[in-house]
Amino acid sequence: MKSFFEGIADLFVNVIFKYTMDPFRFAESWTLSNIVNWLFMLIGTAAFIYWMLELKKYNDKGDEDSTSTSHSYL
């Protein structure tokens, strides 16, 4: 069973990540080296903006019951 997990680790470390990330690792430019980070930040920012706009639409509809009848401490 141990060799199975070591095989999975070897596949990811020595095959998949090596050929996809080494060109970025040895790049001369800082920007090129960090392009993956920038892509993740852009995707995260877009997802955050989308989520906030969806929350605003839901809040503007007024569908939520905000009365304090369910709990006395509200």
Number of helices: 3
Average pLDDT metric: 87
Strand content: under 5%
Q: Number of domains in the coordinates?
A: 1
Percent of residues in helices: over 70%
- Radius of gyration using CA atoms only: 23 Å
Category from helices, strands and their pairing: mainly alpha
Summarize the structure.
The protein has 74 residues and is mostly helical. It is built from 3 helices and no strands. The model has no long low-confidence stretch (mean pLDDT 87).
Structural commentary:
This is Uracil phosphoribosyltransferase. Keywords: Membrane, Transmembrane, Transmembrane helix. Pfam families: DUF6341. The chain crosses the membrane at residues 35-53. With 74 residues, this protein is an all-alpha fold. The chain has one domain. The chain contains three helices and no strands. The protein has helices at residues 2-25, 30-33, 35-61. The longest helix has 27 residues, at 35-61. The radius of gyration is 23 Å and the shape is elongated. 0% of the residues are buried.
